[in-house]
Amino acid sequence: MRAPIGNFDNAVPAPGCLDRLTEPVAAAVRAWQGPVPAEQILYVDTDPAIADTAVFVGHHGSELLDRSANCVIVAGKRGETTTLAACVVRSATKVDVNGVVRKHLGSRKVRFADMDTAVGDSGMEYGGITPIGLPAAWPVLVDAAVVDTEWVLVGSGRRRGKLILPGKAFAQLPGAVVLEGLGVGAG
């Protein structure tokens, strides 16, 4: 099947290729519920050598810059308590860590989680982290612009491969909180 966005000739419904996903992502796809069916989560195989956004968009279609999202893991700290959370914003924007995220988490200080924590605690590969299949205790903060996008390209849990799914599906993820202004400025 042809993907609904980008230059991908072979999009496969994720439930039919669970072996290409990390275990946490595959488990989330198996357990998927809600108004957007799991079959609308599409997997496209991609070259990990071109996984970084600018190179990827140049190769697979410039329209993907406005139709792709990045998932970054942040660590909010208040006193001795650290809260990990995922932030999902359009690739052309940056996460408003010191404004929207800090306020929502009720943290005094928020920083991007270090790579070992993000990878180790998520069970995913650096550069491929996706909001699908993250630990249940983590809030998943989603920019409203992502939810309002018809189809969104996001990581698959690995650097090889991406997922394409309706933007509204991000609002049905466990722990999802849709926030206005989470993504700001040019990325």
UniProtKB/TrEMBL annotation:
SUPFAM superfamilies: YbaK/ProRS associated domain. It comes from the Bacteria. Signal peptide: none annotated. It holds the Pfam family tRNA_edit. InterPro entries: YbaK/aa-tRNA-synt-asso_dom_sf (IPR036754), YbaK/aa-tRNA-synth-assoc-dom (IPR007214). Residues 65-170 form the YbaK/aminoacyl-tRNA synthetase-associated domain. This is YbaK/EbsC family protein. The lineage of its organism: Bacteria, Bacillati, Actinomycetota, Actinomycetes, Kitasatosporales.
